[in-house]
Amino acid sequence: MEQVTSSLAPSRATTLNKSGPASSSQSGAGSVTKRLGNELMTLMMSSSPGISAFPKTDSNLFDWIGTIEGAPGTVYAGLSFRISIHFPSNYPYVAPIIQFETPCYHPNVDLKTGTICLDILKDKWSAVYSVQTILISLQSLLGEPNNESPLNNDAATLWDNQEAFKVQLLRHYRPLKDDA
Amino acid sequence: MATDALRAQVAAKWQESFARLNQNEPGIVGLLNFSQAWDIARECIRPRGLDEPDPSTRNVDRSKFQASFELLNRCRRLPILLESFLEDMRKRFLVIEEEVKEFLLEYERTSNTTVILNLVFRLLQWYKKWLPMQELGATLHSAFVLSFQTHLFSVLTPTFVRGFKELCASTLPSADPETSDPAPNVEMWQAFETLGLLDRYENIIASVGYEHIEAHVVATCTGQWSESMLGQLRKWMTDKVVPWMLLMYARNATTADDARAMLQNVGSRFDFHMAKTLCDLRTKEIFDIIIDYPDSSGALQDLKECMHRVDQRASLVHTLRKANQKRLLHPGADTRLILTQYVAIIKCLRIVDPPGVLLFKVADPIRRYLRERPDTIRCIVSNLVGDDDGGDPLVDDNEPIQPLQHWELDDYTDPNWEPEPVDAGPDFRANKPSDVISTLVSIYDSRDLFVKELQVLLAQRLLAISDDNTEKVEKERRSIEILKIRFGEAALQVCEVMLKDMTDSKRIDGHVQSQKASIIHPTILSKHFWPMLEATDIGMPGQFRMFQEEYAKEFSAFKPDKKLRWLPHLGTVQLVLHLRDRTVEADVPPLEAAFIELFSQQDVWTLDELIANVGSSVDRTAALNALLTWVDLGVLKEQTENSFKLLEEAETAPEGARESRTVTRSVVELPPAPSVQQQQAEQMRVYWKFIEGMLTNLGSLSLDRIQSMLKLAPGYDQSIDQLSMFMEAARLEELVAVRDGMWKLASK
């Protein structure tokens, strides 16, 4: 029930905002918060295996922390990676900024900064994507890197040799600690 | 040893006294005269026995007395005379004391108030006998009265007080209107007055009056609630009690105005007492008065008026709360009853105390109690939609339907604004004369619960409608329309969808049937808008499955973006069984139908096989019940335990009674819809997801942090204690672990 009404709510809210430009900035932030709240609800209830995210604090919905587990059957299986998600104030018209916090040895991830090269986070971003779809994309990106546009050239070249890749991966990987 | 000075002084005193008594007479003539006068005077005022002649009867002596007293006065010996008189009186009083004792003994033996009356008259005789003549001056008189009363009161024992009270009571007008009232005994009251008994025993006389009033009020008003008694009581006071009061309180009155003025004070005291007694009585009866409402409105009016006069509000609240605690708020009382009584209390106390302070104080425990009852909401809601099996509706039909009210801030520009009553508590919220439904709904802080329950109820009722009974759907629609006025359009949107589903189902069914006729007529529900219906995995066997599949195919052709999920257990099946020697018609629940369908494949089944063929979720008892239905209808027979055989040919053995039972057993139970409690459990599951989510991503967290983070979950309203209990439960299930107050997910 709740889901139904709450998912009905934001569309109404946005139309309202458009009609009242005077208070647009504030209520605009309000509608983003609402959208993020709904996304959180959907994500929590979806129970997709191996992906999860949650706001850092209850006061600020714009900064989240996520966890991605490597999909079974890939070199990343059994490893968990923490990521940070920052939503801009004009989300969802602009993609969130996502970085790996856990060092991730991956062709499309900068090992030092954690920057990710993923088309849907850049030019292919669309407002219909959500935290959940991003997390699923990232999870599949781990197993299926795009070696055409690598950020980590070593990893890209090493990808074909999965065993050597795994050695490198584990060399850089640091398991999660309990504290955020 | 005596010095000269002392001697001289004594001599001077002696001379002076002698001169005063002797009055300049020669020799001691003066002294002799004085001595004679003294004797005469003493004789004159001596306290005598009742049989002795009065000194004043002999007129001859009168002038002599006068002269003697004058002489004594000149010699300034009157005070001494007075003293000796009082001393004499004290000595003689023993006689009276003896008499009083005798009378009282007599009274103790007989308990007859006449004895007391006689005693009073006897005392009066003594009093008159001893009373010094008026001519002897006021000093002597008042000294006598004082001294007489002092002695008298000292010998009057508590027994006398008791008797006196009885005596006074006996003069009161009788409660029984048949017997004539005792004639006013003016003499007696005068005797009381003379002897000073009235002043001394004023309290007792008043208490006699009070007790009389109390007795009358209790006798005439107990259980008489239909009309206001106060007017009658006041009339009774005027007719009966006031004349009695006149005798003592207005005894000196000469004119009617005089009497009224004298009575004013004491009269208002009596009136107050009457109001207080009535108020106490009604307070004691208040619970039953409320039960009898509206037949008891007279009593409530009385109570209201008495409350104005007597401040018994606290006691009323106390009594009613206690009565409620004892008689209403216990597990034995039906929730419906509690609600009915609560509504009655609301109505009654509004009469007694329009501002609502009393109501607020009394209602609080009831509301708190109702909040704890699991079925309160259901009761209220079913009452709202008129789904009651008998019993009065909580709401009058003629009460105007109006939107639910919110607590509003006082409007200080309102010229009719009034401050809160003085005894209002700090959390008192001015209860604007809102309607009963608003009050009931406000038992809970949120309206959502009601709307949810309403949905559940509506779902039950809609699903129970078999065939295409548009009329019933229309009825539901009407009641929803009414509720919309109360709860607002938005809240009931979901119900609207549910109703629309019903009509849509018919339309869709019409279309599907036109494409390909089918014997099943499903009701198609939009899953999101209906309360959670208990899912089941009964798989309908045989031809039923075929029908379902065919229908589903047609449906998806008609609505390609939608998919049917069958809830077969909510339907009913109309069956005609063609057996070798007979046909049996029956309206049965789907489980029964499924079983009998299986018997068309083979004649003998065991219970376990049947269950396995229908779906493992079927409860054994339910399955057994379903089979017993057929056994009752004479279609199946239990061969050995849990093994059933189809009777192709009816067994002749059973008596005719059994045959006649082939009537359709229409056991259409309301489909089970999850209660609010189950939904709360579901809510908790949502919160758990959030907790899991935050612990996964943020690592270990303190309980406070979890509590504050849970604010992100919609509708989270649990206290930290509840959360703590919840987490503890999760810990026992080894879902989480705690260390140093930090919670984290248990490592898998």
TrEMBL record, chain A:
Entry keywords, A to Z: ATP-binding, Nucleotide-binding, Transferase, Ubl conjugation pathway
Comp. bias (Low complexity): 19-31
Pfam families per record: UQ_con
Name assigned to this protein: Ubiquitin-conjugating enzyme/RWD-like protein
InterPro entries the record matches: Ub_conjugating_enzyme (IPR050113), UBC (IPR000608), UBQ-conjugating_AS (IPR023313), UBQ-conjugating_enzyme/RWD (IPR016135)
PANTHER family: UBIQUITIN-CONJUGATING ENZYME E2
Region spans: Disordered: 1-31
Organism domain of life: Eukaryota
Feature: compositional bias, Polar residues: 1-18
Keyword NADP in record: no
Domain UBC core: 31-178
Active site: C117 (glycyl thioester intermediate)
Family according to the record: Belongs to the ubiquitin-conjugating enzyme family.
GO function term, MF aspect, one: ATP binding
From TrEMBL, chain B:
An MF annotation (GO) of this entry: ubiquitin protein ligase binding
Domain Cullin family profile: 409-629
One Pfam family, short name: ANAPC2
BP terms from Gene Ontology: cell division; metaphase/anaphase transition of mitotic cell cycle; protein K11-linked ubiquitination; ubiquitin-dependent protein catabolic process
Gene3D superfamilies recorded: Cullin Repeats, Cullin, Chain C, Domain 2, Winged helix-like DNA-binding domain superfamily/Winged helix DNA-binding domain
Any GO CC annotation of this UniProt entry: anaphase-promoting complex
InterPro entries: ANAPC2, ANAPC2_C, Cullin-like_AB, Cullin_homology, Cullin_homology_sf, TPR_ANAPC2, WH-like_DNA-bd_sf, WH_DNA-bd_sf
Keywords, sorted A to Z: Cell cycle, Cell division, Mitosis, Ubl conjugation pathway
Entry annotated with the keyword Cell division: yes
DNA repair in keyword set: no
Stated family: Belongs to the cullin family.
Protein known as: Anaphase-promoting complex subunit 2
Organism: Lentinula raphanica
